[in-house]
Amino acid sequence: MPQQLPVLPPARARVLTIVSSPSPDPHEVTSIVRSDPALAAAVIRAANSAWSAPRAAVRTVERAVIRIGPRETLQIVGAAVLSTTFEDLEAAGLDVDDLWRHVVACGLLTELLIDADAPRDVRAAAYSAGLLHDIGRLGMAAERPDDYAAVVERVRGGVPAQEAEHRAFGAAHTVRGVEAADAWSIPSVIHSSILEHHDPPEHLSPLAQATARAVQISWRLGIGDGVMVHGGEDDEALTAEDEWVLSQIGGADVLHARVEWFRSAMQPPAPRSKDRRAS
């Protein structure tokens, strides 16, 4: 039985299409962001973050887009659509910070990994493929948090994630993810990445292969998926090939910094305690 996903407002659903488009219209992006307070706040936070090296704070969407650029705006807005749609995942036992870092890292890495000779629409969809590859997990955790908490417990006890999900939900997050992609009208070019990102890479489509490798590199960077826990003896180090891929963005430290930039924009900071005294 297909899962019950949160209903996306049409403008938010449109964002997930635009971010995968080879020729996004920056004016349409600005218009959508301006109409959605949560997305507008995410873009303004990104523009005012240390990464953006602001000389003065910006307070409008238009100026924020100019400061961070249309492509980065699209990517941040796509990530913010997910984080503000699935806001209460702690009840499902997930490490939410790790989860959001993972999907952002996979988006950025998939964009680095996609073959430069791939068709233009495939290259344009690379970031979205990485960002959305675990959308089935988000939907399962949001719909039935208690059941997904049991999945997390089993996985951390040594049961493979897809097996634990199948026991609890009758399907793995990869299958449920394709159902979610259909429900949200996510471009079909991304579906294979959602379905196959845990499969052996040699038989995958170029986009699914890039996503699968992004998942592996994310894990080796210490950015987990919110289910598994780092720090065990089985954790793998970056390979020489991984290091070469990361060099295309400036290295692992730059990738981590960029992930943190996106993460800080996706959701507002925790409120400061009322009891805190000024120093």
What would you note in describing this structure?
This protein is an all-alpha fold and 279 residues long. The chain has a domain of 184 residues: Orthogonal Bundle (Hypothetical protein af1432), CATH 1.10.3210.10. The chain is 61% helix and 0% strand. The chain starts with 9 loop residues before the first helix and ends in a 13-residue tail after the last helix. The C terminus is likely disordered.
Describe the structure using short key phrases.
279 residues, Hypothetical protein af1432, mainly alpha, 0% strand, 16 helices, disordered C terminus
Quick summary:
This protein is mainly α and 279 residues long.
Fold topology:
Elements: H1 10-18, H2 26-35, H3 37-47, H4 61-68, H5 70-85, H6 96-113, H7 120-124, H8 126-132, H9 135-143, H10 145-156, H11 161-169, H12 173-183, H13 191-196, H14 206-220, H15 240-247, H16 252-266
Helix pairs in contact: 1-5, 3-4, 3-5, 3-16, 4-5, 5-16, 6-8, 6-14, 6-16, 9-10, 9-12, 10-11
- Which range best describes the helical content: under 10%, 10-25%, 25-40%, 40-55%, 55-70% or over 70%? 55-70%
Overall pLDDT level: 89
Profile the largest sheet: none
Regarding CATH, which class of the domain at 82-265?
A: Mainly Alpha
